[in-house]
Amino acid sequence: MEVTKIDNQSLSLKNKVKVFFTKAIKNKKSKGFCITKDIMAVVMDKWSLFVIYNLAYYETLRFGQLKSNIRGISSRMLSVTLKKLEKHQIIQRKVYAEVPPKVEYKLTDFGIELAEKSVELNQWFLDKYLSPKS
Question: Is 0.90 topped by the overall pTM?
């Protein structure tokens, strides 16, 4: 029986998945679970990508600027989203000792890489989804 290109691709994907999960589970931070799941859950919620993309585009924004850029988000939801992204080291918050208080948000190095990868993933999806079906 001859091995086809599709068979090789399937084996390659299986190997990639195996290596990924083996590495993820051995990670000390994951405590036996896949830490990627936790990060992806944060990033893939309704508002996080809007925050990440805004910070990727504008680099540094204040709370009010983010709120006005993201149509439909409540102040509470933006606050919750920012806290979640900060907890997972995707964004950093800088507080200035001023009256009234001034707070700025920007992506961490990890957040910048995450934004780049998610744009690539979204672009791939749009290309596949929106391309005419053969």
Answer: no
